[in-house]
């Protein structure tokens, strides 16, 4: 083998070594400044959740800097308001000129879609995934939990496992609640079940005696109520007071706070919920950085995985000389609890699990 061939072989081997190193997302392609924008509800009704997501982002940013990334996180508070989301997106995209923008839920994504319609800056939802987000535009992406699938899964469990046949539905006048309620109704009726009542109420309603009377009169054997936090506990307590013993099902808005506020009325109910597996490492990082335990690790993982996904898209973009939006479709990395693999699509979604309240425990049901 002559000298020229040896040089070519060496270059190929070296290139392969470099590529393997980069593919683990440990070494950045360039030292050029990278900007990641974050739009979270840091004040308002969802402030706690937004704050925990932001902390997960900050942990991932710290790690990236240690790995050699010249990266900056620019955080904006949308105040849990559509106008706040729009103003934040305009600033991050047109003034700060960030490479990627991270956000959380559908209610934030929807008012911002027009801003991301042009150009190549991707918007990545880290909590929600649904049909709207999947089709909102070429630069809109998601690594969150499927809203429709949560409704489908509860409907299948209600019909096949709980043997319910006549179910009432109470949803909130809200986009998320409407999406998950519609999915439940469609799936339950397709299986042969009957929806005997389907009503939407104000998101902050806490008086349900009228609806409870209707459900008793209709002799419904189940009630599906994907309502907002602070409204589920009053409904459960009023059901108990009025003697409505029908099987109760709800969604991921149910939490330990609702359990405690219901004063025992939530025993035996079913709900779909988010989850985070194998995140002891992330919890340890959180404790080291913030000197306390999170108590909401799944939300911390949203932010952490969001930054990791964004950095991988930026790495692919620079190594292949393609747009960050195009590169996002090629992301394939290990998340904190499951693989994040776009596989040419604009989403890598997860499916919620079903739980039953047993005492003060949330027990997964299959």
Secondary structure elements and pairings:
Blueprint: H1 3-23, E1 34-40, H2 47-66, E2 71-77, H3 82-96, E3 100-103, H4 106-112, E4 123-125, E5 128-129, H5 131-134, E6 140-142, E7 145-146, H6 147-160, E8 166-172, H7 175-190, E9 194-201, H8 209-218, E10 222-224, H9 232-241, E11 247-250, H10 256-261, E12 270-273, H11 280-290, H12 297-320, H13 324-328, E13 332-334, E14 339-341, E15 353-358, E16 361-365
Parallel strand pairs: 1-2, 1-3, 3-4, 4-6, 5-7, 8-9, 8-10, 10-11, 11-12
Antiparallel strand pairs: 12-15, 13-14, 15-16
Helix pairs in contact: 2-12, 3-4, 6-7
Description:
By secondary structure, the chain is an alpha/beta fold. The protein is built from 13 helices and 16 strands. The strands form 4 sheets. The chain has a 7-stranded mixed sheet with strand order 9-8-10-11-12-15-16, with helices on both faces. Helix 6 (147-160) runs parallel beside helix 7. It is elongated and about 65 Å long.
Brief overview:
The chain is of the alpha/beta class. It has 13 helices and 16 strands. Helix 3 (82-96) packs across helix 4.
Helix content: 40-55%
For the report, how would you describe the main beta sheet? 7 strands, mixed
Q: What is the CA-atom radius of gyration, in angstroms?
A: 23 Å
Strands, count? 16
Low-pLDDT segments: 1-24
Gap between N and C termini: 62 Å
Strands side by side in the biggest sheet: 9-8-10-11-12-15-16
Mean pLDDT: 91
- Number of helix segments? 13
Q: Which class do the helix and strand fractions yield?
A: alpha/beta
The ordered string of helix (H) and strand (E) elements is HEHEHEHEEHEEHEHEHEHEHEHHHEEEE
Shape: elongated
Strand proportion: 15-25%
């Amino acid at each position: 083998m002559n000298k020229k061939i040896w040089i070519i072989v060496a270059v190929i081997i070296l290139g392969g070594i470099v590529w393997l190193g980069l593919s683990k997302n440990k070494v950045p392609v360039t030292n050029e400044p990278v900007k990641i924008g974050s739009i979270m509800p840091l004040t308002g009704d969802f402030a706690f959740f937004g704050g925990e997501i932001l902390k997960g982002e900050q942990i991932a940013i710290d790690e990236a800097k240690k790995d050699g990334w010249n990266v900056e996180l620019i955080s904006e508070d949308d105040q849990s308001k559509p106008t706040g989301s729009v103003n934040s997106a305009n600033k991050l995209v047109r003034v700060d000129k960030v490479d990627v923008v991270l956000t959380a839920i559908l209610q934030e994504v929807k008012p911002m879609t027009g801003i991301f319609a042009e150009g190549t800056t991707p918007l990545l939802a880290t909590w929600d995934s649904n049909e709207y987000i999947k089709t909102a535009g070429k630069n809109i992406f998601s690594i969150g939990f499927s809203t429709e699938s949560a409704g489908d899964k509860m409907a299948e469990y209600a019909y096949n496992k709980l043997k319910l046949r006549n179910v009432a539905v109470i949803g909130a006048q809200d986009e998320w609640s409407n999406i998950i309620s519609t999915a439940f109704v469609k799936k339950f009726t397709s299986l042969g079940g009957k929806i005997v009542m389907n009503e939407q109420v104000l998101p902050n309603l806490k008086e349900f005696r009228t609806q409870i009377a209707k459900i008793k009169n209709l002799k419904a054997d189940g009630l599906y109520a994907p309502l907002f936090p602070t409204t589920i506990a009053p409904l459960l307590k009023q059901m108990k007071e009025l003697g409505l013993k029908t099987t109760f099902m709800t969604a991921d808005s149910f939490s330990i706070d609702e359990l405690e506020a219901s004063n025992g009325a939530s025993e035996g109910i079913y709900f779909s919920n988010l989850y985070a597996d194998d995140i002891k490492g992330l919890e340890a990082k959180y404790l080291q950085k913030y000197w306390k335990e999170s108590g909401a690790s799944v939300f911390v993982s949203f932010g952490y995985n969001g930054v990791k996904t964004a950095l991988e898209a930026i790495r692919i973009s620079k190594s292949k000389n393609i747009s960050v939006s195009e590169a996002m479709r090629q992301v394939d990395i290990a998340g904190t609890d499951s693989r994040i693999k776009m596989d040419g699509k604009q989403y890598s979604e997860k499916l919620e699990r079903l739980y039953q309240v047993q005492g003060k425990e949330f027990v997964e049901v299959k």
